[in-house]
Structures are given as structure tokens and as C-alpha cells.
Amino acid sequence: MICTPKKREAGPTNNWMTPEEGYRRAGEILKNSMRGRTMYVIPFSMGPLGSPFSKIGVELTDSIYVVLNMRIMTRMGKAVLDHLERTNGEFTRCLHGKAELDVNRRLILHFPEDNTIWSVGSGYGGNVLLGKKCLSLRIGSYLGQQEGWLAEHMLIMGVENPSGYIGYIAAAFPSACGKTNLAMLLPPEGLKRKGYRIWTVGDDIAWMRIDTDGKLWAVNPEYGLFGVAPGTSSKTNPNFVKAIQRNTIYTNVLLKKDKTAWWEGGDPPVPAEGIDWQGRPWKPGQIEESGEPKLGAHPNARFTVPILQCPSVSNRLEHHHGVPISAIIFGGRRAQVAPLIYEAFNWQHGVFMGATMASERTAAQVGKLGEVRRDPMAMLPFCGYNMGDYFAHWLKLGRKMTATPKIFNVNWFRRDEKGEFLWPGFGENLRVLEWIISRCRGEVDAVETPIGNVPHENDIDMTGLRIPRENLKKLFAISKKDWQQELDGVQKFFNGFGKDLPPELWKEFRALKKRLEI
Ligand code: GDP
Ligand code: MN
């Protein structure tokens, strides 16, 4: 819930309540709920402590899980309190109570105008580690609008090319669409030999500001990684597996006899026995009453680990001003329609691309799996104010920069008629990033299409990658008919904002429509 006096301030894409109602309803559930429990006070800093761009929070909680995980995910402790005393004392007031852990008595409330977050009745990371989605994105985006910066659901990574130049990229994909994997990508053999390296700055959240040079700079406000365990293995994400060998908290995984952890899709061998995520004895091959295989780990089992333990971590993590952003990437899961990569003609067109982003639903979202839904800038569940005003804020910041980052859209998830992925993804995505950086440095031209610029046929390095030529054709195919249909969906989506949608976006809509008619 976004709790503001007027519904318009929360906008058409948020759940809304008045602050009075929010405080009253949560207050009723919280009342006496901590009796007999230990209350912890957690002072924490989002961003390097002492940076003018960082924000401080203090979370009260009755959960030791929250305390230990906040110690990994944020910079926390006495140094933060000392700092608070030396400054103007401004901080986000965060309150969390487990109460009964009853889904019907659960409220996650944001009060942007009071710089306050109340969370009651949940024990799940995203709802209780209040520095993450609640502060860094929902309250952060509101503060960003007030103070002239951007809080975004983006990974930040550096791509080092063979000459040693590092281009920094920020990328927004909806949850479970590959941010963490891309942020710590392992270069494929050929590109590694050429001299490419990847530097991880952040895997989930970017705070971006215009610095004194008039360009966009980004910091990762977090200090840890909150990863999904199932599917993480030395094959899918070797850097992550190396990171989680120590100082790691595992949640809802399978406990093996030797007291280490395992999960479906983890490194072999599959253990012969263990304790499952619900505390029951487990053996491989068992079937639930529902007929589904009995899982050792919950599909959303997680681990938290200090980001400094990631082998590819960037040495710019502690820099108070962060890193200069050359490119912003939007993307999602699209089985059809969207090509592997295309580039916006300019900032305003790029904002339109972000505002019209869509993705197929994954297990991370409520609703029908596979259904296409609009998720502008991957911020649908995280924007703390009216999304129409948010688009206007993006447009305004673009006008303030001396040079704007280039904006791109990627789709690693396009499929053929048989439903197979057309693109191998993961480490091979570096081939696309290489083109993006070359575009940012003005080293290659592109082909203009109605939806944006795409690479010339030979400008994506395919050495060592065997993909049938017709697959490449399909990856880059742009069907006018599909895109006209896409525009029908965009029109409906835009109409939902009424007069709050910036006219520039309707202008981009009409321009694209016209380009598709030719
Ligand atoms: P995040 O929630 O955005 O950080 O996404 P993750 O990086 O955790 O990835 C979510 C899921 O997408 C995992 O199952 C990954 O294996 C899968 N995934 C990530 N990158 C790619 C890719 O390039 N291609 C394909 N096909 N799947 C990917
Ligand atoms: Mn992630």
C-alpha cells in the first residue's frame, strides 16, 4: 500500500489507503504483538556511509532473521548511529512486526510524506528487510522525485573491453528475468580470450543522479545479494556459487545430513536424504498428495551474502559518487514480438520504450503464468508515487543532462515455433553488451527500423557460437503486424493514466504508429 492523503498521489498502478486508515489498521494488528519478544533496533545506511547520496534508515523489528539479514544486505551498526548524530538527523522510520504471520492480517504500508514504512504479519525478505524494495525503491523513488534523482529497479555492471576501458550499464528487468545473472555474467571462452571482463556493482537496485559533469551516475545502495537458490549452480552462475561458500544465510532450502544446503537445480549430486524446507524428512523421487514431486527447497528459497564476496565485485562499490552510466537497458521475457536488441532514437523515445515495457508473468508475480503484462521500467510494484508523474520525472531529468545515456531494449527469451529459446543467453549475452558499448562509443553504425536501431548483420561477434543463420533472422525479425497489435495494448495501458500521462509519450506513440504504417 502507498498511503497518501489523495488517491491521485499513489496513481492508478498502486494499492492505496489514507495514512490515517493505514496507521489505524496496522496499529490494531501490531498492538501487544511484540509482548514477550525481543525488540531489535537496526540503524542502517543505504549507500556508502557518509556519501551525500546515501539515505539512513532505522528499523525496529521483533525478528532475529531480519537483524541477521540486514547485517548482510546493508551497512548497519553503531557507525550509522554516530553518523546520524553528526548530520541533520533525517532518516526513514521503519517498523516491522511478525505478529501472527497471518496472510489476512498482513499489511506492508509506505507513508512517503512521513518518510515511514510499517510492515506487519510477514516474514518474507522482500516484505521485512525494509531497506530493499520498501526504502530503496518505493520511498526512494518518491524522494528521488522530490530531490531530482532516480531510484530504479536496475542492476549495475561494468563491461571491461580488451583496451581496459570499462563501460557501465544499468539494466531494468522485472523480477526473475535475469538481473542477477547478467550482473555477474561469466564471459564465454572466446570473449574472455579477447580480454573481456565483467565487474558487478549491483544486481537489483540503482540510485542514479546527475553529477557535476552533467551526466548520469549510479550507486548501488545495497551491500549484499538476496539470491534465488533453485536453479543456481556452478553451471548457471559460477560467480554466485563461489560467493556463497561462507558468511551466507540460507532460507527455505533443503538441509543435508552434513548440515550444508541443497536445492533443486543446484550442484550435483542430489543428496540421498535430508530435511526439506518445511522441516520434514525428504528423499529424492517422493511425490506430494497433489501428484507434484516433493521439493526439498521452496521454489523461492533464498540466500543472502555480502556482495564483497562475489568474485566479480567492482572496486567502485564504495565510491561515494558511484559509476558513470553509458547505457540503460530495458528488457523482459517475450516469447515473440521483441527482437534480441534494439536501440532508442533518443532519450524521449527511450523513456517511451521503458514506459511500454512488457513481460510474461513468472512465479515471482501473482496471476496467470506466461500472460503478458505491462511492467514499465520494471517498476510496476515498486514506484512509490503516481506512475504518470514518474514518466514525467524521467523526461525532465533527460532535459537536464548535458549528455544522456543511450537507451536499449533486450529480449533474451524469444522462442521458435517449437517453443525453444532462440538465444543461448547467460554468458553469451556479453556479445550483445559488446555491441551496446560500441554504440555508446560511436564505433559502429546501426540499421534503422520503425521500432529503433538494430545491429548490422555482422556487428554482433558470433565467434565460437554456433547458431543456425535462420535463428539469427528470427531473433531480429520485426513484424509490423505484431507491433501494431502491441500498440493496441500500449494504448489501453496509457489510457489508464488519463491526463496524468505526459503528452510526450502520446507523441512517441503516434510517431511509432506512423512509422509502422509506411
Ligand atoms: P532477477 O530476479 O531479475 O535477478 O533474475 P535472475 O538472474 O535471478 O534469473 C531469473 C531466472 O531467469 C533464472 O531461472 C535464470 O536461470 C533465468 N535466466 C537468467 N538469464 C537468462 C538468459 O540469458 N537466458 C535464459 N533463457 N534464462 C535466463
Ligand atoms: Mn535478482
Report on the architecture of this protein.
- With 518 residues, the protein is an alpha+beta fold.
- It folds into 3 domains: 2-147, Phosphoenolpyruvate Carboxykinase, domain 1, CATH 3.40.449; 152-220 and 317-498, Phosphoenolpyruvate Carboxykinase, domain 3, CATH 3.90.228; 223-309, Beta Complex (Phosphoenolpyruvate Carboxykinase, domain 2), CATH 2.170.8.
- It is 28% helix and 23% strand.
- It contains 15 helices and 28 strands.
- The model has no long low-confidence stretch (mean pLDDT 95).
- The structure holds guanosine-5'-diphosphate and manganese (II) ion.
- Residues 173, 175-181, 228, 231, 236, 412-413, 421, 425-426, 429 line the site of guanosine-5'-diphosphate.
Indicate how many domains the architecture comprises: 3
Helix content: 25-40%
Number of helices: 15
CATH architecture annotation of the largest domain: Alpha-Beta Complex
Gap between N and C termini:
44 Å
Radius of gyration: 23 Å
What is the residue-averaged pLDDT?
95
- How would you sum up the major sheet? 9 strands, mixed
Total count of strands: 28
Class based on secondary structure composition and strand pairing: alpha+beta
| Low-confidence regions | none
What is the percentage of strand-forming residues? 15-25%
